[in-house]
Amino acid sequence: MVTPSAPAPARAATIRTVLGDIPPEDLGVCDAHDHLFLRSPQLPGQELDSPDAAAGELAAFRAAGGQSVIQWTPHGMGRRTELLPGLARTAGVHVVAATGLHQAVHYAPGTLDRLRADGLADLFVRELTEGIGDSGVRAGLIKVAGGFHGLDAHARWTLTAAAEAHHATGAPIAVHLELGTAPLDVLDLLCADAQVPPHKVILGHLNRAPDLTVHRQAAELGVYMAFDGPSRAHHATDWRMPEAVRALADAGFGDRLLLGGDTTTSGARSVNGGPGMPHLLRGVRSRLALAAGEETVRRMLTDNAGRAFGVEWG
Known about the structure:
With 314 residues, the protein is α/β, with parallel strands linked by helices. It has helices spanning 51-63, 84-91, 109-118, 120-129, 153-169, 183-193, 212-221, 236-239, 241-253, 279-292, 294-301, 303-308; strands at residues 15-17, 20-22, 30-34, 68-71, 94-96, 98-100, 141-145, 173-176, 201-204, 224-228, 257-260. The strands form three sheets. It has a six-stranded parallel sheet. The protein has a three-stranded parallel sheet with strand order 3-4-5. Strand 3 (30-34), helix 1 (51-63) and strand 4 form a beta-alpha-beta unit. The longest helix is centred in the middle third of the chain and has 17 residues, at 153-169.
């Protein structure tokens, strides 16, 4: 008689940082969407490419009480991954790197042709499990993007590749929503068609389209929802965000909400006179606490981020 073997013990979820895997509870106060380095033809002259400026921004964030930053900069957009371990170590801030691909406008046509030939999902898996280039740094999430009020062919290609990479690794998929639109289209493709569990999807920029009905529909599916990127023009991305966060928290979805700064231009950095990463903790946090309560904001900055980016890596 063959004795059944005991099931393998479940692996504990960890956060894959640029200095190694850590328990989710070690993430601490987390900027769930930001950029230390970023380069795009869509932002000429505003590149985030200075190591000194990145170090200064991390130090300012740490001084404001920040403990971790999730960098959403994907493949081919100037990640400078080889610099991230040193910056993280010096600042005493956990940093998570991303694989993935942004919208087509951010790349030269030849780059996309090469990625199609080489296999996009294979690239994502390789950067998650083996490392990004020769840096030795493994990515901890997949960042892709939807389109404006829908999904074009490029978005469908990248989202499908992200789903394949998720199924191979368990990595979470973070999605740039163009001006906050088309979250339900994204979820139809990822969760309904490609069978990605909703709790492994993070929707970004929901503050840019503060449609409370759509937010509620997305939340009911079980996804994580990021409110990231304060405006420099004081429009709806700022003054309606507390209302949207409070509505979701009051409806019982406070455990699915995240906060991020999404600094994408050099002029927006605090070291250059902009709001930068510290603004998330010095400005946004207190305003949200007035609207949604201190406990909701605490969970958004700590517990929720630990769960959203935690993976049972193989």
